[in-house]
């Protein structure tokens, strides 16, 4: 099991990035959350099987149609198993 903390930059707000990322995570069985940040980035914490996390990270590098991902900062964290599902967080 694996946990990653991502900061995604580029044109990633206003292009359904959070909604599409949430859908992708649910398809992959990944748990965690995604949210917009005031600086224009998208932040996500994701936990799951190694292969599912790898696919999730790949998705975050491209995003949905209309998005332009310039950079993805990835931090590996200690797996906690604290999430029941994957959701969109609102606010900062």
UniProtKB/TrEMBL annotation:
Its EC number is 3.6.1.7. The active site is at residues 18, 36. Keywords: Hydrolase. One of its GO terms (molecular function) is acylphosphatase activity. It catalyses: an acyl phosphate + H2O = a carboxylate + phosphate + H(+). Residues 3-90 form the Acylphosphatase-like domain. The keyword Hydrolase applies. Gene3D superfamilies: 3.30.70.100. InterPro entries: Acylphosphatase, Acylphosphatase-like_dom, Acylphosphatase-like_dom_sf, Acylphosphatase_CS. PANTHER family: ACYLPHOSPHATASE. Belongs to the acylphosphatase family. This is Acylphosphatase. It comes from Candidatus Desantisbacteria bacterium CG1_02_38_46.
């Amino acid at each position: 099991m694996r946990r990653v903390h991502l900061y995604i930059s580029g044109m990633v707000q206003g292009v359904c990035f959070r909604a599409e990322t949430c859908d992708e995570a649910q398809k992959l069985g990944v748990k965690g959350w995604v949210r917009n940040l005031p600086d224009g980035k998208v932040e996500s914490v994701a936990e799951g099987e190694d292969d599912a996390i790898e696919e999730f990270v790949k998705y975050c590098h491209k995003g949905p149609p209309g998005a332009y991902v310039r950079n993805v900062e990835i931090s590996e964290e200690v797996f906690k198993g604290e999430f029941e599902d994957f959701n969109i967080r609102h606010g900062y």
